[in-house]
Amino acid sequence: MATLRWILAFSIAMAAAQPVSAAPRIPDNPGGMPVTLDGSDLNAFARILQDAGYRARIKVADNGTRYIDSAANGVSFTVNFTDCRQGGACRGIRFFAWWSRPSSMDSLAVNEWNGGYRIARAAIDQDDDLVLDYFMSLVGGVATANFLDSFDWWTVLIGDFRTFMEEKQTKAALAPVKSEEKQGMNAADRNIAG
């Protein structure tokens, strides 16, 4: 009976950890864009996102690389092109969002998130910021519909991640703090040796 309860509790927890929306919210190919994209035309990716109703501004980083600045679900993020060849196509995309890390989002909370989601990973970076990223390969080109579906999943996941952080902060704020007296130690006990 205990095993059955454990299996049921585990199943409910895993179902709760899945993304809220599984149905795509963006059309497969808005505005009649090319059926297949490769990493050589950053502008095409930006136009597709704009045609789908998203902010997509091309910007240049301090190191000279171009990226797309966008936002969804109240979260700003970037679409970075990776492993770019000199004068040729880039071989991947990295969707990337970051936040100042709340104290409730420690490594245990990050690992909890990563254990429940398979396509976006969370991490604490070297600046103690909280990051969420999602990699997509562009090798051999990518169907526009596939790119838009991946982008749609990304927007769902950043919304889910923001909710996850808020729930962790709420739980941390509501957690009772044990005073020394409730832990079985009072002021007089601290002064007693041995």
Task: List the defining traits of the structure above.
194 residues; alpha+beta; Yope Regulator, Chain: A; six-stranded antiparallel beta sheet; two-stranded antiparallel sheet; 36% helix; elongated; disordered N terminus; disordered C terminus
Could you characterize what this model shows?
It is elongated and about 55 Å long. The protein has a single domain (26-172), classed as Yope Regulator, Chain: A (2-Layer Sandwich). It has helices at 2-16, 42-51, 107-116, 144-174, 187-190, and strands at 36-37, 57-60, 66-72, 75-84, 90-100, 121-124, 129-137, 142-143. The longest helix has 31 residues, at 144-174. Residues 1-27 and 179-194 have low confidence and may be disordered. With 194 residues, the chain is α+β, with helices and mostly antiparallel strands. The strands form 2 sheets. A 6-stranded antiparallel sheet has the order 2-3-4-5-7-6. It has 5 helices and 8 strands, in the order αβαββββαβββαα. Helices cover 36% and strands 25% of the residues.
Low-confidence stretches: 1-27, 179-194
Residues in helices, as a percent range: 25-40%
Order of strands across the widest beta sheet?
Answer: 2-3-4-5-7-6
Q: Write down the domain tally.
A: 1
Instruction: Report the biggest beta sheet as strand number plus sense, adding barrel if it closes.
Output: 6 strands, antiparallel
CATH topology name, in short, is Yope Regulator, Chain: A
Q: In terms of topology, how is this protein built?
A:
Elements: H1 2-16, E1 36-37, H2 42-51, E2 57-60, E3 66-72, E4 75-84, E5 90-100, H3 107-116, E6 121-124, E7 129-137, E8 142-143, H4 144-174, H5 187-190
Antiparallel strand pairs: 1-8, 2-3, 3-4, 4-5, 5-7, 6-7
